[in-house]
């Protein structure tokens, strides 16, 4: 049986005390243990940022890539070996600034990734510039006048891009966060989980005290239909005193990208023997240019 | 009339007239008829209009290059005559459409002007004036005395899937063309008859050869974004993926293309991203990721003239120093630049072995000229038998099962190469990082670790250097003039050397396919008068040689107008200054 | 008075006969003449593609930039000189593949650009590969098996990104297209116009005959409220026998980026005299590091 | 006790302890007290934990570099003692927190160990143990005999906006520190007293100096994406934009950053994109756009060790050949690499003039060392008066009004420079294209046009070459040993040369700030034994010199552990092999 101790790495986190990344880290390990995925059966792919160091602190296959390129690298891993459960963990800058296009293309591809965004609504590792999810008006080193831009709405964008699983969770509720990840691990295609992750050092206005009184769980409403896209859009636009968390949208009727690739019928690409072309294969190739 | 040594037929017209596909079809017929060809397209970066042309050089001996003189000009518009009449040799001829007439420029007395009602005949016999291109090539066959049954055969093959009616229309048009040539036979002195029962030969261009080589060499993952002239490799692979157990994906941009290929390479599949210089510009950051995390990956970069968008459908060798230094910091990379169709095929296989053996990015540099020019070669010249799939120090499942202790993905070794586990085995769980890391892959900033890790990575370059090939020597053994070529200029230079030697000048060519790391022992080969011949503005390979070996070439023959080097251009420049 | 002849360039279009770009080109010129913007008062910014050659065929300030980078270059032009009306004209590959992230960030910035997408749902200039708006299942050189991806829905994405003007038009109705462009030219912030542009050479299944029977005008419905975002989302998802065109969404209550930049209160940046720092300015700078 | 020539104080602890800001504050106090300083931060790429330190070298004469020996080690944790005790000179001392105690390693008999209840005192006097860093610097001031009123002054300035209570707490802590030093005075032999009434001097680092120079030089538009060590320039500009009539924008990625700067440049505003190597990797394609469309734009690239993410907060000179060749095809670019704070300021102004004069991208290469090390200079050394804003051949409104005929944006000229109209004037309506184009800017594929247009663009490089500065010579006039430096290594090399000459070795330094095009006449300066000294693995500048001039340096002294070169390292290597 897989336990959360299986994921213990010799490297200790360097996150600030109180950082919301601890909960995300724990939730990922718990969720994996819960669904019974062992360290060698998963790959944690990240970018660059505070949160993106997560794979270094976790005993599992991992790859810490480039800032903003988490999703395409993870897609390559998944296409080469769809026997691996590929999980992305990266920051809001990584995912929604440099990486926004990649995420939306991944969503329309419906590639089988669980994409967890450590959304502290600030640039942590580079010490406190505003991020795409920072509030309009937020003052930082690079927005001394208060940001002019509307924040990115990842939920609405993922829905608009055709994502088949769209969720939000937060670091203040470990068991709910774990549950959402477990649910995403059961999804066949692309699953976005935007996680409110308090950064206690550079974004104190959006710390635990901000979120705790505001968040409510969509799944607490028995009438909420996760397959209703318009309902999901409506909740995606909800912001202010009440902020919904949980699964906004989930449908299982669209095949994942991997399920559609004919070559994959024979199993993961990496598992197929790599051999020289057979004589009849060579012959067919030569005939094309005769 | 006696057979001609060689001749060049050029067809000209507008984009959208199908010059390239009919030109390649005609070339194929010639090859099936036992002749040797070199076919070169020349077209604009637009879908309609503009002046395009396709030249096919034909001979009874193997050809490696196009040349400048034209013997027969097939004009699908007046513009063709206007532009190319100067290139026609004395005794040569122009075939034009009666309907188009000739441009109002002086007629050359030494050239034949053959008016044929092309549109009318195509319409009458084929039911569509667009079939003029088939017709005019049939006229050409008639004029040079080439057996039209070969053309008919190609038409049958090409149009079979469109149904018998289309095939028949084509056959009628071909026959009409041959007949239309008859009245002019006496006025056209050049003949090139088919050689019956000649052994089968292939006709293909550099892109196709490279793609086949890559597939044979074990490439199973291709991620790309369309860009001339590199994207045909993506398209070729897409067309063959299902049958050969590969996967291709067209992605949102070139950043994603290389990142995905790296992800696939990391996960253990031989992966590649084909592109051109502009697309490669977007891959630069990911190059460093592969270098730092020691991931095998191949980039195929078919150059076109820059800077920036430049001339999308023209040729240049302008990206050499760029790809050599692309990405921040220092890491090993291997660069190959095939010069021929055969070498393109071979580079396909070699690139993936290098990538796996050195666990670092490998670049194959081609260009529009090599990528698109078609040449005939013997089937055995695509040497599938010689292809070896060598995964280097990749750990087998058995080796992984036997692993003791914590696996060190980036172990310090003398060769710089650390035995690699494909992720997924319970005994070798690791995470690599684009941050500097320790032997396990964990992020590590320590100065001593950094020093050693950087040395380890860079040592791979020295290990690789020992197996890089020295340049091919071609020409006089006792040459006092050495022409230095790299990549696609092999053909024009080879012929220039032949001609120089025929004229009594003791010349040779040194042709490099293995560019970086510079092979051991190059210095000793750079003796006498050395002339770098390059299809770029500054002589980048000469710069590279100077940087790497200290050798300063005697001079440089360069061309940067977006058109390929020809033997004539080289000879003219060799002579004008020697 | 500005007339459409003022925009006549000596260069003749190289588009295929019947290409939908002709209508877009004419509509742009008509719209400019209609609102009275002279050639030197506008800048046409494009990328690379068939459609992106439009500025070459039009006498007006122009800039043909990189494939996919139309919007950031145009943003730079606009920030340097918001006295110029900046209009982007670029293809669906340019805008929604390489450029998707840029577009959505431009939308949340609400930068004052009119962004016209020549959406032929194919890669024209590179000869017929599928594009982000190609239908799922479409077979092309690079998708011989039929594309696996869901097409991009530009309308929904722009709405989700917070765009303040979102419209669709088509090459088959020049006067409606012109009207929509005129309306966009009157908008204060970012305006997206996705134009169905038949490519008669590489995408014959989506030619005039496809669109003509399907398109209907949103503005024909007197009850349609362009300021109702949920209604806009609903129409954005409508696809099939009936395809809405016209303005999906327009609000004027959010200031444009330019309106918020304090420096711009003194007029366009490029018009401000460029002078050496005054002694008291130097003094203040030095005091900071004393 | 007699005054010391110079001394280095190093404070060490974890990230989050505020070492850098308190270190810079202490340095500022020293400078106000008439002393010269060189302050060097050393920190990890993480927000908490890890081992960070800050060293301040202090003297009565101007300093250009840090050095290795430490006289006083201020330890905020045991790790600091463990790591740095070896660097402490005989007679030096360690100050540590009684609460922390000392690590279990042998005590050095030649070093003083001063235990002070830092946490307790900080808590008692300041109300917060975090104020240990202020306290320990006050102890240091006490030990070296430096008048604490200067430290108090800085504390007043820094904390004024936080209110009087905070200021008072700081003042109490400072006083407590000075008192706590008293019992150890007899055991600490080094003194560095304030020089009363010394002229005012500035304290700043390379980033600040460059940003000020750029602003003074007319930069009015900055688009950027955060990246260490380049982003402080974006932040500095953002903080000054409103007051100085500039605009800054944080964008979605570095592609957009340079594209926006190019858009702004095209529209006529002096624009820049600051970044580091990784961000520059994403700007590569846009570099070519600027080159092809002849748009003035400046890129500030502060290097850090690669490849890839590498060591985000460390230093290296590893991107030289990369930035030199970045982007497909060939086009002119200008590269400057300032070596000091003063030169960084100057480069700010020069870069924008070059960009406008040559209508092409200009790169300013800095690195983490130069960008972050603080040094004191005289106010007049930031020579605002010398700044000239020269827009080159930019047409004025009057000139535009007088234009006749269709305006040719890319006119063929002898210098390669085409007089430029800022878009918006009715007489000069044009569209430039990243495709090859004719003189008007229209897309044009003609071979002859291409040849001439490429020559025109490349000619700008030759025009520019004439005004590039030769390297600074420093040291013995009759030197037989020439140490070659570029960029940030100015300081360490200068001091190495001083010491060599003091030891009787006739050495000099050639320091390059103007890297590309290589200035005219460099060849003649490369005589005798030449040693390239670089902070990278391969000696990129030596490679560049060989490529450009044919000169092969006698040898290379290199360092690639992510840490800066020191005079000691250079001297050791000069001697070990000479
Ligand atoms: C191409 C590139 N640009 C910039 C950086 C610098 N950088 C590193 S982390 C980061 C932002 C971090 O923010 P986020 O992604 O939100 O992660 P967080 O640190 O907040 O977890 C940046 C800009 C980089 N490494 N690469
Ligand atoms: C970075 C880069 N990648 C690829 C290309 C090649 N390219 C030129 S146009 C084009 C696609 C054109 O499609 P679209 O943008 O839809 O424009 P259309 O031709 O259909 O109008 C591509 C891929 C390029 N010029 N630059
Ligand atoms: S800076 Fe913020 S995001 Fe980074 S570790 Fe600290 S609390 Fe977490
Ligand atoms: S290829 Fe298509 S988009 Fe391009 S010009 Fe022709 S019809 Fe228009
Ligand atoms: Mg963040
Ligand atoms: Mg298109």
Describe the structure.
The complex is a heterotetramer, with two copies of chain A (290 residues) and two copies of chain B (578 residues). Chain A has one domain (4-287): 3-Layer(aba) Sandwich (Rossmann fold), CATH 3.40.50.970. Chain A has ten helices and eight strands. In chain A, helix 3 packs across helix 4. In chain A, strand 5 (165-170), helix 6 and strand 6 form a beta-alpha-beta unit. In chain A, 30% of the residues lie in helices and 16% in strands. With 290 residues, chain A is an alpha/beta fold. Chain B is globular, with a radius of gyration of 26 Å. Chain B is of the alpha/beta class and 578 residues long. Chain B starts with 5 loop residues before the first strand and ends with a helix. In chain B, helix 4 (132-144) packs across helix 6 and helix 16 (490-502) crosses helix 18 (567-577). Chain B folds into four domains: 6-198, Pyruvate-ferredoxin Oxidoreductase, domain 3 (3-Layer(aba) Sandwich); 203-386, Thiamin diphosphate (ThDP)-binding fold, Pyr/PP domains (Rossmann fold); 393-467, no CATH class; 472-576, Rossmann fold, CATH 3.40.50. In chain B, strand 4 (70-75), helix 2 and strand 5 (88-97) form a beta-alpha-beta unit. Chain B has an eight-stranded mixed sheet with strand order 6-5-4-1-3-2-14-7, sandwiched between helices. A seven-stranded mixed sheet of chain B has the order 9-8-10-11-13-12-19, sandwiched between helices. Chain B contains 18 helices and 21 strands. The relative contact order of chain B is 0.09. Chains in contact: A-B, A-C, A-D, B-C, B-D, C-D. Strand 2 (61-64) of chain A pairs parallel with strand 15 (431-433) of chain B. The structure holds thiamine diphosphate (2 copies), iron/sulfur cluster (SF4) (2 copies) and magnesium ion (MG) (2 copies).
